[in-house]
Amino acid sequence: MQTQLSAISPGTETLIYRGELPAELPLDESIPSLQGSFSYPFQYGYAAVGRVIEAGSQVDGNWLDKAVFAFQPHASHFAASPEELQRLPEDLSLEDAVFLPNMETAVNLVMDGAPLLGEKIVVFGQGVVGLLVTALLARFPLASLVTLDRFPLRRQASLASGAHASLDPLQGLALKSDLAAAQAADSAVGADLVYELSGSPDALDQAIGTAGYHGRIVIGSWYGGKTAALQLGGRFHRDRIRLISSQVSTLAPELSGRWTKARRFQVAWEMLAEIKPSRFITHRFPLRRASEAYHLLDQTPEGSIQVIFTY
Q1: Successive 10-residue mean pLDDT values, the chain, 311 residues
Q2: How many Å apart are CA 197 and CA 223, to the nearest integer?
Q3: Domain range holding 115?
């Protein structure tokens, strides 16, 4: 396949860039192209779109020149079996299709949170995954949908994606009153459902402080080697707050009797066509300028949302 675009995963790949992942950890046990561990040197990336330019003698010739997606590291060309490729829907652009892994993650997060009609929901983190989760949740009849992110660019994108309010989590004491005002749809105290998608361990303690009695906190962030200091001696214990781990490599056991990865992918493709996340692309770099792309994400994350490589 000849790659035309590949997307950087800002959270995971910034951790890699900073060396904040355990070297012995497998790259990804669920993706065949990502074998080995986070021990340098290694290839990474899992969002490539392009066209099939050559097929083996045992492969159906209908694959030739088809636009496809693959979970492959950043590279201009690669070989893959047909089972590792997904054909793009005819009416979907390459720029929207490159968001497939993050959309699948967002769909999985929403499924694991199981939002209910009329609930009050808070989302910490409005990076790519956070914005996609917000855009999906905005389709539910919620009492309130409040998001938090440090960067104004992302808060603006969050409001455009359907959040009722988007706040700065670094406001300190003012944050509680802002959250209360934003959630004042009824007299219930605290959020019904909270998502922690910021990648910051400190945000998890804030999430606990935001949840109401028996509230659900879905943790989609991957902290790498960083640890989270949590205050578990107060409301967390007495208010029966639930922490839910969510990771896209598998399906929640309670769904696996009816849902498959193929069914979840189909939903992800449909949501890409509806949400059109290509509007979140802020920077494009040719692969030869990869060092500039990662320096941007590391040093000035406030100026970017989705960064992609072009070929």
Answers
A1: 94 82 60 59 83 90 92 93 94 97 98 97 97 98 96 98 95 66 66 95 91 96 78 85 93 95 97 98 96 94 96 96
A2: 10
A3: 102-245
Same domain, 177 and 240: yes
Co-location of 163 and 189 in the same domain: yes
Residue 159 has a CB neighbour count (10 Å cut-off) of 15
CA distances from 64 to 5, 48, 51 (A): 18, 17, 8
Query: Is 230 a domain residue?
Result: yes
CA angle 22, 133, 162 (to 5 degrees): 145
**Distance, first Cα to last Cα, the chain:** 12
Give the pairing of strands 67-70 and 85-87.
Answer: antiparallel
Here the CATH number for the domain that contains residue 175 is 3.40.50.720
Read off the pTM.
0.89
Rounded to whole angstroms, the Cα distance separating 166 from 271 reads 22
